[in-house]
């Protein structure tokens, strides 16, 4: 198989959603289509309704298969599918954001009963910045949800992306008859019990559904869409400017397969990626990739870690020698893991779009580039994401101050957490995207550096960076706290939206930027 052929087969994507929209349920269906699992429905009965990263481990245990917690990889029809899990719920952290830099497209699930929810907006913004294609699956059509037209306009208004429904629901909840598949020119009848019946549009007049009042309503809506809706454009989908929208029910396994098949057609294979030396095409002969996530072994007896590497160009072969762009160090990649959901555990080869796990004897940092051959370059540095929660931190026992300093330096460099110092007092403030980051930080400081910490919560804050080189410091106080980040750049931590707005109105000469939008 040629390199080009392997690349064109690859579809690497993440599923983003607000908790409970149906990500686990949908992912499970996709794994089922990929014959990774033999039946579905094991996780949905979980009482708490909450699923963490360990869900896949659970599935793995129950089904006796090898699905790792973060990457699910399987062949499907002519494609090679890589699904990257974006940890949500209490596991929400910078890792969640960074994972989105390693995918080529994104599926956004929206709960039809709730519409666009906060966590979806946050994740969506990151995807939007990268200009990657976004596909929308509106879920839970078997329940009474919001009007489809209303949902579309919410997506357009709140997220600022144009939408194009490739299918349209015929009723919902108790009156849910099925979907009108505009793309495949069929009507798919909902029969419950994971059953569906496909009726080609050309035969629809002979079917009783064609005279059903709910179907007639649907046709009215479709006429409206045809006239007033957006034009479909593959190019705009690929640029992330237009999102194809699908309706269905993950739980009833309705509309999921047609969604998946169509999605795979339109989703892009790996594209050229930016480096400090220009674009590198996936077809480039030399293997290259970058590390987007490092997972420490939480077992203190084993200090080893796994670095998650996204292959960006060339072919990876186990045992090959590469160099670490940052330091020039040459490394032989022997201990590598695959995330193939079939039996293999070590990976012998991988192609652009694939994710491999590289054993990390403490030499890698998040964002590191690995390259085969003489050329040297760095994949675009991963953006820092603005933290949302802040805590002052100090060491419990002052005798441990030295280990405290060392531990913080190391963990901050690793990207586990963000470091700030309060201006003047130099008090250390840690910033995180999610709660879990503090917990992991605390745990690792204890386990790896034997340091116990004391935290004072500053709660959720809105960080904004100051662009001015010179400014007066007398306007700041505890509600708009002046801090410096780890690169000594000044930032302000605002107590809430109100203090932020008040400050902006009254201190017009201070120019504030939102890190996320600047990147
Ligand atoms: P996640 O938090 O996004 O992973 O959401 P889950 O997949 O765990 O789903 C959350 C809840 O919604 C579970 O109780 C699911 O059974 C339920 N759910 C998921 N998809 C559907 C659907 O299509 N219809 C209905 N009625 N419930 C669904």
From TrEMBL:
NCBIfam families xref list: prfC (TIGR00503), PRK00741.1 (NF001964), small_GTP (TIGR00231)
Domain Tr-type G, residue spans: 8-271
Q: One Pfam annotation, family name?
A: GTP_EFTU
Q: Which keywords does the record carry?
A: Cytoplasm, GTP-binding, Nucleotide-binding, Protein biosynthesis
Q: Which organism is it from?
A: Metabacillus herbersteinensis
Q: Which CDD domains match?
A: RF3 (cd04169), RF3_II (cd03689)
Where is GTP bound in this sequence? Answer: 17-24, 85-89, 139-142
Q: Which family does it belong to?
A: Belongs to the TRAFAC class translation factor GTPase superfamily. Classic translation factor GTPase family. PrfC subfamily.
Stored SUPFAM superfamilies:
EF-G C-terminal domain-like, P-loop containing nucleoside triphosphate hydrolases, Translation proteins
Q: Where in the cell is it found?
A: Cytoplasm
Q: Which InterPro entries match?
A: EF-G-like_DII (IPR053905), EFG_III/V (IPR035647), G_TR_CS (IPR031157), P-loop_NTPase (IPR027417), PrfC (IPR004548), RF3_C (IPR032090), RF3_dom_3_sf (IPR038467), RF3_GTP-bd (IPR041732)
This protein is called Peptide chain release factor 3
User: What is the purpose of this protein?
Assistant: Increases the formation of ribosomal termination complexes and stimulates activities of RF-1 and RF-2. It binds guanine nucleotides and has strong preference for UGA stop codons. It may interact directly with the ribosome. The stimulation of RF-1 and RF-2 is significantly reduced by GTP and GDP, but not by GMP.
Q: Which Gene3D superfamilies does this UniProt record tie to the protein?
A: P-loop containing nucleotide triphosphate hydrolases (3.40.50.300), Peptide chain release factor 3, domain III (3.30.70.3280), Translation factors (2.40.30.10)
Alphabetized HAMAP family for the sequence: Rel_fac_3 (MF_00072)
């Amino acid at each position: 198989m040629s390199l080009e052929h392997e690349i064109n087969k690859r579809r690497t994507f993440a599923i983003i959603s607000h908790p409970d929209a149906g990500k686990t349920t949908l992912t499970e269906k996709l794994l089922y289509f990929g014959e990774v699992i033999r039946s579905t429905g094991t996780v949905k009965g979980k009482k708490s309704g909450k699923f963490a990263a360990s869900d896949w481990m659970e599935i793995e245990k129950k089904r006796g298969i090898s699905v790792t917690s973060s990457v699910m990889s399987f062949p499907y029809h002519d494609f090679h599918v890589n699904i990257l899990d974006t940890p949500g719920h209490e596991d929400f952290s910078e890792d969640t954001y960074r994972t989105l830099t390693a995918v080529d497209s994104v599926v956004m699930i929206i709960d039809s009963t709730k519409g666009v929810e906060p966590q979806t907006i946050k994740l969506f913004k990151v995807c939007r910045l990268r200009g990657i294609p976004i596909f929308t699956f509106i879920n839970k059509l078997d329940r009474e949800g919001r009007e489809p037209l209303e949902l579309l306009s919410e997506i357009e208004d709140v997220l600022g992306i144009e939408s194009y429904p490739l299918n349209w629901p015929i009723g919902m909840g108790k009156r849910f008859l099925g979907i009108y598949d505009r793309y495949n020119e069929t009507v798919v009848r909902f029969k419950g019990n994971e059953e569906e019946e496909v009726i080609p549009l050309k035969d629809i007049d002979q079917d009783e559904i064609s005279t059903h009042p709910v179907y007639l309503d649907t046709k009215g809506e479709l006429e409206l869409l045809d006239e007033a809706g957006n034009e479909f454009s593959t190019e705009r989908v690929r640029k992330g400017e237009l999102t194809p929208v699908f309706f269905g029910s993950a739980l009833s396994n309705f509309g999921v397969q047609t969604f998946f098949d169509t999605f795979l057609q339109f989703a892009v294979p790996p594209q050229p990626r930016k480096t400090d030396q220009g674009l590198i095409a996936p077809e480039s002969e030399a293997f290259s990739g970058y590390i987007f996530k490092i997972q420490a072994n939480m077992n203190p007896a084993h200090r080893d870690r796994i670095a998650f590497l996204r292959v960006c160009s060339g072919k990876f072969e186990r045992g090959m020698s590469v160099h670490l762009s940052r330091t020039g160090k040459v490394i032989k990649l022997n201990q590598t893991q695959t995330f193939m959901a079939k039996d293999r555990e070590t990976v012998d080869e991988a192609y652009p779009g694939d994710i491999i796990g590289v054993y990390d004897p403490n030499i890698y940092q998040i964002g590191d580039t690995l390259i085969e051959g003489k050329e040297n370059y760095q994949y675009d540095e991963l953006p820092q994401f603005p933290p949302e929660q802040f805590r002052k931190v100090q060491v419990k026992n002052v005798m441990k101050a030295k280990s405290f300093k060392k531990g913080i330096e190391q963990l901050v460099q690793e990207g586990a957490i963000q470091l700030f110092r309060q201006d003047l007092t130099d008090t250390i403030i840690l910033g995180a995207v999610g709660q879990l980051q503090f917990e992991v930080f605390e745990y690792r400081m204890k386990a790896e550096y034997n340091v116990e910490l004391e935290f004072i919560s500053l709660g959720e804050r809105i960080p904004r960076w100051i662009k001015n080189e010179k400014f007066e410091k007398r306007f700041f106080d505890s509600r708009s706290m002046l801090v410096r980040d780890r690169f000594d750049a000044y930032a302000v931590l605002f107590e809430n939206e109100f203090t932020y707005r008040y400050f902006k109105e009254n201190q017009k000469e201070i120019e504030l930027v939102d890190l996320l939008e600047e990147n």
